[in-house]
Design goal:
By secondary structure, the chain is of the alpha+beta class. Helices cover about 25% and strands about 25% of the residues. Strand 16 and strand 17 (about 435-440) form a beta hairpin. Helix 2 runs antiparallel to helix 5 (about 155-165). The radius of gyration is 29 Å and the shape is elongated.
Length: about 450
């Protein structure tokens, strides 16, 4: 598992005897779960162990169980008791709460506004012994604000709840209470989903009109946890992940783009998420986007219905009308031109195939039933034109070109639509580029989609 996918608090710090070996550490800790690596720290000059190590587990619950069991015991031939704690970042270690082991016992979660303390206790007590539950309420109305805290008596119980509870709770480990945790108190600024969602378009003023956000998040967060985080504010449409590491924080940050459905919801998400600590001690950094979202939304407009047209196609239609009007005037003057015999010359230049009228794309969330492999030779036509042409057969889910290549894939939710597209477009030309369209080989489940020009 790559380091960026390690869950929070799954790495342990072990203060041990300088004679303790890496093999002894591995043999001890692997009894509690899947150990990804053991790093026995050594002096650079002498190569001798310094007397401490780091142990990375596959799961938070495994690390928690190991910490509780091994802390205070002996390892190998040494009679010295070891000290085992959660490995903290520099920001976490510098806080006054870093010596409090109970900081890992407390979870923050989003709940229905109809929930009571009894409902929380009933659901979360199945994972272990609960010390207390607390629903955050409005100070004036005393109404449930839609989020709560559950504190367990043991770190391992909190970890099991974090891993196994219903994902609709959007559970994260709560940061330490009060100023010791750094930043604003979460009780006053915690994220909640306002209801009804339709009101959210006017939550924030956004004169700049941006709808996309760039963010830097912890490398320790899995993709699904990042999506949950950005989905807490209303209006999220999608999240895109980038492999490159931001230049200004290369060790701890990962680059993410989040698209929201309106300027109001994007501004609201920016205010709520910028500076938010997730996981505890690691701040999310969020900035508005003014260019990337425009390019991505040009593709998303294709999913709005059968009457959606890209900017490129609008320009083509405008040119076509101008050409027809010019042809009429020239013909009335008795002048012969190549366009008088072919007033639709521009449309023929765009695609040599006879295309059906625009059709709706597949509904959001549709499952692909057929995948076409598309090759363009000798180069790529405009990608908006590819979208328009392949969408005219209906039920198109996605079309993407492989990064740096002149080939890609078109996914359809209906086999008949895909086969009609293949029969009509294979061997035809689009902007003087010849298309080769074939049924793609079945995609292996373990094969990740390669990066594309849109990623």
């Amino acid at each position: 598992m790559a380091e960026s996918l390690y869950p929070p608090y799954s790495r342990l710090y072990v203060a041990c005897d300088k004679n303790t070996t890496e093999e002894e550490l591995t043999g001890t800790f692997q009894n509690f779960g899947s150990v990804q690596n053991v790093n026995l720290c050594r002096d650079r000059a002498t190569g001798k162990p310094k007397g401490f190590a780091f142990v990375q587990f596959d799961k938070t619950s495994e690390a928690a169980t190991a910490m509780e069991a091994v802390n205070g015991s002996t390892i190998g031939h040494s009679n010295r008791p070891v000290r085992v704690t959660v490995a903290l970042s520099r920001d976490q270690a510098s806080s006054s709460s870093s010596n409090d082991p109970s900081q890992f016992h407390r979870l923050f979660l989003v709940i229905p506004k109809t929930f009571t303390e009894n409902d929380l206790d009933e659901h979360f007590s199945r994972f272990g012994s609960i010390e207390n539950v607390s629903i955050v309420k409005d100070r004036e109305t005393k109404e449930n604000k839609g989020y709560a805290y559950v504190k367990y008596k043991k770190f391992s119980d909190a970890a099991r709840a974090f891993e196994n509870c219903d994902r609709s709770y959007k559970v994260v480990f709560a940061k330490p209470k009060g100023p010791a945790g750094g930043g604003r108190p979460i009780e006053r600024e915690a994220l909640s989903r306002p209801e009804p969602v339709s009101i959210c378009t006017h939550i924030e003023e956004n004169p700049h009109g941006y709808t996309g956000l760039w963010a830097q998040v912890s490398m320790d967060l899995p993709d699904e946890h990042i999506e949950w985080l950005f989905d807490i504010p209303p209006g999220l449409e999608y999240v895109r992940f980038f492999n490159e590491i931001p230049y200004d924080n290369p060790q701890y940050s990962r680059k993410v783009f989040a698209q929201y459905d309106s300027p109001g919801t994007a501004a609201y998400a920016l205010r709520k998420l910028d500076g938010f600590e997730y996981p505890a001690g690691s701040r999310v950094r969020v900035k508005p986007d003014y260019q990337y979202s425009d390019r991505m939304l040009a593709l998303d407009r294709q999913r709005q219905g059968p009457h959606s047209i890209s900017n490129l196609m609008q320009q083509v239609e405008s040119l076509n009308k101008s050409l027809n009007e010019a042809t009429r005037l020239i013909k009335s003057a008795g002048i012969s031109t190549p366009f008088t015999t072919n007033p639709n010359h521009l449309e023929a230049f765009r695609c040599s195939a006879k295309l059906p009228p625009p059709q709706p794309l597949a509904p959001s969330g549709s499952v692909p039933q057929e995948r076409l492999f598309v090759v363009c030779e000798p180069g790529l036509p405009p990608q908006d034109a590819l979208w328009d042409v392949f969408s005219r057969f209906g039920n198109l889910i996605e079309l993407y070109i492989l990064n740096g290549k002149n080939c890609g894939y078109a996914k359809y939710s209906d086999k008949d639509s895909a086969h009609k597209a293949m029969q009509t477009l294979n061997g035809q030309e689009l902007y003087r580029m010849k298309l080769k369209v074939l049924i793609a080989e079945p995609q292996r489940e373990d094969r990740k989609r390669p990066r594309t020009n849109y990623d």
